[in-house]
Amino acid sequence: MTSTGHRGAVHPGAWWLWALSLGTAATRTTNPLLLALLISASAYVVATHRAPTPLARSYAAFARLALAVLLVRLLFAVALGSPIPGTHTLFTLPEVPLPHWAQGIRLGGKVTAEALVFAAYDGLKLATLLICVGAANALAAPGRLLKSLPGALYETGVAVVVALTFAPHLVADVQRLRAARRLRGRPDRGLRGLLQVGLPVLEGALERSVALAAAMEARGYGRAAEVPARVRRTTAALTLGGLLGVCAGTYGLLTAEGGTYGLPVLLAGVAAALAGLRLGGRRSLRTRYRPDPWDARAWLVAGSGAAVAALLTLAADRDPEALHPGVVPLVAPALPLWPAAAVLLSLLPALAVPKDPEEPS
Amino acid sequence: MIRFEDVAVVYDGAAEPCVQGVGFEVPEGELVLLVGPSGVGKSTVLGAVSGLVPHFTGGTLRGRVTVAGRDTRTHKPRELADVVGTVGQDPLAHFVTDTVEDELAYGMESLGLAPEVMRRRVEETLDLLGLAGLRDRPIATLSGGQRQRVAIGSVLTPHPRVLVLDEPTSALDPAAAEEVLAVLQRLVYDLGTTILMAEHRLERVVHYADRVVLLPAPGEAAIVGTPAEVMAVSPVYPPVVALGRLAGWTPLPLTVRDARRRAGDLRERLAAGAANSDTAVAAELPRRQPHLGRGPAPRRSLFRRRSSTTPQPLPRTVAEIQTLSVRRDRVTALRHVDLTVAPGETVALMGRNGAGKSTLLGSLVGLLAPTTGSVTVCGVTPHRTAPPDLVRRVGLVPQEPRDLLYADTVGDECAAADRDARAEPGTCRALVSELLPGITDDTHPRDLSEGQCLALALAVVLTGRPPLLLLDEPTRGLDYAAKARLVTVLRGLAAEGHAIVLATHDVELAAEIAHRVVLLAEGEVIADGPTAQIVVSSPSFAPQVTKILAPQRWLTVSEVREALA
């Protein structure tokens, strides 16, 4: 075990940056070969580096969700038609005549190969994005990411973590109570069965929250340091002022006439809000147990992801043809060499970061 | 260290105080046991130590509770977190994070200890509690005993001077309970921690206690004394004390070892009695045979058979399991299990937490489909049978009996149970009146105690008159009186021809009612035979009476009492 890192693992933020960068890269292209390459690269890294937590299994769930998104996108293209003009008619569905006020909406009709391919490319892009989010979940639990929040936001972070751990408990409760319904001789399937266990499940969840709140209270949650009133007031002023500044600055940036003052106000607002957070952290006595250090490997992981995103954005700018293979006329997508090489950069963490050293085998 | 001065607690909306006149003192470094029947307010007293009563639960606390000199009136629970560590009844409700190591660190993080200190204490605690191999494991994957140890560890890391535990071993199998108790022993002896704990399973803990605080009945003043003194007057006592009282030993023995050293003449009397009356010890086994093949008892039965059920010849077996294997979540929970249950037979399933007892019950009631092999209950395959038909063949009282109860009042619950089982209206209510005398129709099921809830769930399940009755951990959270009532009820049912299968960690219960014991380990049946044979040969599953009177084969105090009479 390495002496520094929490369990010798890379900073969770690095994994999230890496995965989200891959997602960004996926939005830059509709080339199915590149997208497939992105999916395989992320899947490979997940397979070698996922954390041994129950949440890591959510990768499979995200993959299924992605597949569902792709299928729904195709189904819509078939049922509702598509604005893509095509010549290769695959089959024709009976068209449902709609009243004149529903003009522009079509149900059924001709289904062309072009429309289907376009929908598939588009669906695959979304699916890749989802799979990248799934990869982030599997590589670093969001709970670990929340632990890196500044002290002032810690309590919010705990609330989110507790909420996250509640979902699996709820699922378990529903299963238990449905089993109990079966024991009573009532049908355990169907919507009615699910609805009738709803109330007991909610009651159970409420009871558990109260028990957890009691346990947290007894373990010192929410102990606060005495802070001079002056500091408290400054904190409030800085945070509020900062947030106002952020709002005003964003507005300025987005409207045409605010071009001059927008950016400086936004930056000042961000700075004030950050200072407020930092000062607010003084109230919290909390210390952090084995915080994840942001080390060279974290830079490498985050950097490789960022590089993929940057290179694909650049490629989309330079060579849009290759990254968005045409559907009218239908052409087989080709694998552009340089963007593909760029995507392969995302495999760098798989090689450079040692496998989780304490994974039980 | 802990001082209660004439404490009374009244919860909001309650007419009577939950506890009153509680005054005692726990000196530093002692292990004090809080005992009493269910519902006398043990949890309330424990909650008052950490300040959760009344700061968190509401209600009014009169008198004064001080812990390490801090008055809980002026200190909130979070401000006592550095002196008091509390573990409640359900360790799962206690965990904030999801891995063992983070959980151990959580309390210290809240107190703001320096990172180096936290790191050192986490490592020390991992070693102290034997958790080093589990440090990275998600808590959800731990066994019951491991969870309890993690829960204790998580409150130990801030080095509290007082540890408050509510039923730390109730849900554990005998071996896991020993694990936890060994840890507590170490804390008291090596670290000088003061421990106050409540526990129903006195046979496991009473000999570890330096002092016992007895709450004899709701609202009565507490009695404090050495374990032997208090056990002499306590309404709740373990079998070893029952035997000691029966034999008239003073001072009362608290451990099997003490009792064995006194038991020489008792053994002689029993042996002589057995020789004289010709009920030799060997006759023990036939006496415990179930009433095989006997129909519903002709005498006045506890639960009269309804006239509408067509009398049918009783089959030779109620349930038959052949080479059953069940896989759940990629884990083989049961492996090639064979089991038959005859009418009128009571079978106890025993084994570690996670040995597959609940899975076996689940397969019998059709909640789980067999991966391979077959399950037949009263001629049908449970997981392929529609629930309304199944309730008339097999009934399960789950570990959490409250899961079975949905309605707002006992009366509604009974009416619903009659409809579910297509029984005559009033069937369930009649059962409730027999099992739970004095409960009115408008009582809310949530207001019932653990034992009453179990009885109500049992009545609901029995409404369908299933020939096979399954119970999962029925004595969890029951005091000795409730347990004795349950034993009477189950014996009556078995005598009527009901087959009963119960999964339990409670060796005393198994000794009391089971004709047969089936031991499970890692999903396999490792022993199956008459209770006397199986439990006598096992050090961890032998009841106290057996251990005391070995090599003679006695299982329960009531057997000894009958033999002496």
Automatic annotation (TrEMBL), chain B:
One Pfam match: ABC_tran
MF terms (GO), sorted A to Z: ATP binding; ATP hydrolysis activity; ATPase-coupled transmembrane transporter activity
InterPro entries: AAA+_ATPase (IPR003593), ABC_transporter-like_ATP-bd (IPR003439), ABC_transporter-like_CS (IPR017871), ABC_transpr_CbiO/EcfA_su (IPR015856), ECF_ABC_transporter_ATP-bd (IPR050095), P-loop_NTPase (IPR027417)
Topology class, membrane: Peripheral membrane protein
GO (cellular component) term, any one: ATP-binding cassette (ABC) transporter complex
Compartments it resides in: Cell membrane
Keyword Lyase appears in the UniProt entry: no
Signal peptide, first to last residue: none
Location (main, coarse): membrane
Residue ranges annotated for the ABC transporter domain, each copy included: 2-243, 319-547
Region described as Disordered: spans on this chain: 277-315
UniProt keywords, alphabetically: ATP-binding, Cell membrane, Membrane, Nucleotide-binding, Repeat, Translocase, Transport
PANTHER family hit by this protein: HEAVY METAL TRANSPORTER (PTHR43553)
Family stated for the protein in its record: Belongs to the ABC transporter superfamily.
Described purpose of this protein according to its UniProt entry: Probably part of an ABC transporter complex. Responsible for energy coupling to the transport system.
Identification of the protein by name: Cobalt ABC transporter ATP-binding protein
